[in-house]
Write a structure and sequence with these properties.
The chain has 173 residues and is α/β, with parallel strands linked by helices. The protein is built from 6 helices and 8 strands, in the order ααββαβαββαβββα. It has a single domain, classed as Rossmann fold (3-Layer(aba) Sandwich), CATH 3.40.50.10610. 41% of the residues lie in helices and 25% in strands. The radius of gyration is 21 Å and the shape is globular.
Amino acid sequence: MMNRRRFLGASLGLAPLLLAACNATISPFDMTDAADDIASDLLNQIRGKLDLSAPILATTMIPADPKGHPSAFGEILAQNIGTTFTRSGYSLVEARLRSTVEINASGLYVLSSDATKVARQVAAKAAIVGTYTAGTRYVIVNARILAVDTGIDLAATNRQFPLTDYDLGLFKA
């Protein structure tokens, strides 16, 4: 009987710790941390390839599904990545997705035919572009920095992040 009480007492004493551990996994996705991680990887790759004085065109991350519509997730993630670039000394020029992206006949999102004109207007040397795919448990993000004049990737990275029900609300168009 005494061993049972000790066991129950010890079990009840551990209960708050176990609950805290469970709660720690409820919200594993932090948009700011995710953006910092993506931006840091891109920044490390462009070091020496792109001068700090070269303006970078910032675009909204878009769904990889050609039929998808931009969401709060893509907008917020792009803004956070841009913030990290700005804090690192780069000059960002923001362009709203609607004015620089179109859907071509095959259904793929591409920089519009006026991309050169837009780049000249904002004097951008590079563009931060990216896509995401959200499932019920994870989001996969692909981000790249393109040289505007050639379209060549200067940097590229991808990440997979776990999601909660709360996070899924960010994907509604």
